[in-house]
Automatic annotation (TrEMBL):
Region forming the signal peptide: 1-20
Residues in DUF3887 domain copies: 30-116
Domain spans labelled Beta-lactamase-related: 154-450
Pfam families recorded: Beta-lactamase, DUF3887
Gene3D superfamilies (alphabetical): 3.10.450.590, DD-peptidase/beta-lactamase superfamily
Record-level Gene Ontology MF annotations: hydrolase activity
UniProt-recorded name of the protein: Serine hydrolase
Keyword set, alphabetical order: Hydrolase, Signal
InterPro entries: Beta-lactam-related (IPR001466), Beta-lactam/transpept-like (IPR012338), Beta-lactamase-like_AB/R (IPR051478), DUF3887 (IPR024981)
Family membership: Belongs to the beta-lactamase family.
């Protein structure tokens, strides 16, 4: 940070603890702004955890804030910006001297401050300029170092009607080039994009109204009289829990996941439906259960099952000839997945959750699906891209896609990042510039996910800047 060099302890906590403490975090943010501007550092210090106080005595903390105040002035405004790689909240903070930075916090289970830092706002233009000097192949080979043994990346870079394919594999510890454009990867929760596309088709066919609630499609009342707007189920702002509760401690999660059927879903809606209030401060929260409800409604409205709908209304029209909905044991094109422990993953049937996590595809087929997004006359795909929630000025949501603005208002990037047990992927595109990026991986280890994020960032920044 050019204006002031700040060294401050940041202890990162687990995602579960952080999500549970969003309310405390908002209290601390408000307190920090008030105490910082009024120079009441004693009060803010009372929010420090015991461990943080041991690492940073009061006098050192006060000197830090005094120096920061002297060089940057009071805080003029603060707003939620997004989450960092550890799922900790970032707040865009504007100071009196017109500097803008990100406030990053870590809160423990008691609602105490465990760590704190001020970091620079990302300068994507500067980063993109440096990235453009590298070749796509060099970026891929460099980023692929995080792949486990037998791990692969399949990449498609789209520029209007031109598609270039790249692929790599970790073969006995060495990253080698590989033509894997025809290999099939599990698409994980990218399946939500297909479900939202079917939702859009039902709306455009007049079988669903965009403003309707899921309740309108059932002949029973939901538990606690909860209303579930379909658009909120689609953009993950309904705050339905991620999964329904396990019915018995003797049932394993995979067994429960694969056996969950429509009758159980309906019983849940009637007798157990709740809203996950702890996550409401996040403004969005991914839910397999939410998409099971949305998909159930869409299937009712279109009078067909998910497999038939995806095959007839998505795969066939967009000529995705190799893509399939369910796992096929004899299909040699399917790559085996590698789970977070680096072991071969097992295939778990998903039953009612296939609306949220299912299907297998390759970069060739997905390239066609992304190119279809460039057609402004496709009303169904256009509806899936219509923004429905503004989470922050640079992060919006539609009924399917996330929307970012990496270079200001000049570039609107639609993207999806999906992960399941053994696979991960990134799909992003700019329908105006007609450029897109697809990255498929047969791994979900921690290192491979970091590699996926780095690879998608670099390739997308380069693509949009060229």
């Amino acid at each position: 940070m050019k204006r002031i060099k700040i060294l401050f302890l940041l202890t990162l906590l687990s995602i579960g603890v952080v999500h549970a403490q969003e309310k405390e975090k908002n209290v601390i943010v408000e307190t920090f702004v008030k105490d910082y501007n009024s120079e009441d550092y004693d009060d803010f210090y009372t929010y420090f955890s015991t461990s943080l106080k041991e690492e940073l005595p009061f006098n050192q903390a006060k000197n830090f804030f005094v120096e920061m105040k002297g060089k940057m002035g009071n805080i003029k405004s603060i707003e939620f910006y997004g989450l960092d790689d550890n799922q900790l909240a970032l707040y865009r903070t504007e100071f009196e001297n017109k500097e803008v930075a990100l406030l990053n916090l870590a809160i423990n289970s008691q609602g105490e401050l465990e760590g704190f830092r001020i970091i620079d706002m990302p300068d994507n233009n500067k980063k993109a300029s440096a990235i453009t000097q590298k070749s796509n192949q060099d970026i891929l080979l460099e980023s692929a170092k995080g792949l486990p043994a037998k791990g692969q990346f399949a990449v498609a870079i789209i520029d209007n009607d031109q598609v270039n394919y790249f692929g790599v594999e970790n073969k006995k510890g060495k990253i080698v080039l590989k033509d894997n454009r025809e290999n099939l990867f599990s698409m994980a929760n990218f399946a939500t994009i297909y479900t939202s596309t079917l939702f859009a088709k039902a709306v455009n066919q007049g079988k669903i109204e965009l403003t309707q609630d899921a309740n309108d499609f059932y002949d029973f009342e939901f538990n606690n009289k909860v209303r579930l707007p379909l658009t909120k189920l689609a953009n993950h702002t309904s705050f339905v829990p991620m999964l329904p509760p396990l019915e018995s401690v003797s049932i394993g999660e995979d067994e429960f996941f694969s056996g969950y059927n429509q009758n159980q879903l309906h019983e849940y809606l009637k007798n157990q439906l709740t809203i996950d209030s702890l996550n409401m401060q996040l403004k969005q929260s991914f839910s397999f259960l939410g998409y099971a409800i949305l998909g159930d409604v869409v299937s009712k409205a279109l009078e067909s099952d998910f497999n038939t709908l995806v095959e007839d209304q998505i795969f066939k029209p967009y000529k995705m000839n190799s893509s399939i909905v369910d796992y096929q044991k004899k299909n040699k094109k399917i790559l085996k997945g590698i789970n977070r422990l680096g072991q071969e993953s097992t295939v778990v049937p998903v039953s009612m959750f296939k609306y949220a996590t299912s299907t297998y595809s390759n970069t060739v087929d997905l390239g066609k699906f992304v190119q279809a997004q460039f057609d402004p006359t496709d009303e169904d795909l256009s509806l899936t891209r219509r923004a429905s929630v503004i989470v922050s000025p640079t992060y919006w949501l539609s009924s399917g896609w996330k929307i970012a603005f990496p270079f200001g208002n000049d570039t609107k990037l639609y993207f999806s990042r999906a992960v399941d047990s053994g696979y991960s992927n990134y799909v992003g595109f700019d329908p105006v510039k007609k450029k897109g990026l697809i990255i498929l991986a047969n791994s979900s280890t921690e290192e491979s996910l970091k590699s996926l994020d780095e690879l998608s960032f670099q390739l997308m920044m380069k693509l949009l800047k060229n």
